[in-house]
Amino acid sequence: MPYYSVHKRPPPHPLTPSQEKLKAALLATGEEWTPTWHHLLILDPTYFAAYCRLRSVPVLHQRLPRKTQHLVLLALDASVTHLHDHGIRVHTAAAMRAGASKEEIMETLELVSVLGVHAVTVGVPLLQEVLAERGEASDSTPATALTPHQEQLKQDFTRQRGYYSPTWDPVLALSPDFFAAYTAFSSVPFQSPSHNLLEPKVKELIFVAIDSATTHLYAPGLKVHIRNAMQLGATREEVMEVFELAAGMGVVSVLRGVDALGEEVGGGVEGGKK
Question: Which of 13, 94, 134, 258 lies at a 20 to 30 A Cα distance from 187?
Fold first, then answer.
């Protein structure tokens, strides 16, 4: 996941032959060269090389097509829990070079936009616990039968989204109007012919990516979407590759720090000293 550098001027010193090889290794993974990467390579080539090795594993194995890999990386960078602007631009361009259409890019972003609903799916079970502590009756217990209207909403969700999870039962019971609105909102990327261009397995892998992201780690949804993806034909290797792509997110800590360090030490960053 590339990071935009605050350094505007070109690095003052050329790279050595060994550093050029490391640069080439990074570029081979699909990253975009920036002054930040240049400064990181100068400051700590050992770390730089280790990151290249980590990042290259899914690229070399390529269980998923390159287009799908970039759509997964786009989803991770566009997630509301990350919003990595430069990565969004880089992986949009890379996905399109790999064959993605503008409609597929838009569909990926729409899939990612559902992440906000976890405010509800995390909050509702806690609300149920507090209601139970207070001795207040709840209409959302597992034993509570759904009304005919709620049953119809459940069927609508299953038809439009292709699955249903018991996670939704208390939401459906407590706020059927919200459940219906969310069904319509989250189903847009699944509607043909204007949408629904990505194969179902890829959609589920995108959900796996954003739920597994270090900035989110939503385990209940992650398990649901792993199960869905595998039922739709995803292999364990493909699911693992999504995790491997997501694991690179942590490097942004170093990249942002390198930018700050570069501002502090100025031109001395090339030699590692002020």
Answer: 94
